[in-house]
Amino acid sequence: MKLQKEKGSKYKTYYLFSGPNWGKIWDKIFEQSVERAAAAPLAYGYFALETQGEAHINGAKVQLGVE
Length: 67
Description:
The chain has 2 helices and 3 strands. The protein is mainly alpha-helical. It has one domain. Strands 1-2-3 form a 3-stranded antiparallel sheet, with no helix packed on it.
């Protein structure tokens, strides 16, 4: 996916230049990026529980602030 900042914007409006939404405006890129980053430790915790790997479980606990 290629993004290009809209001229004159405050760095929050981007145009999509590839993919199924080609040419559309993505004005919530910052907010959506923050949400995805915040959800990453939870996804890792789920992965750790599914695999039952001790190293992954310990790493997930650290990321989630449990230990």
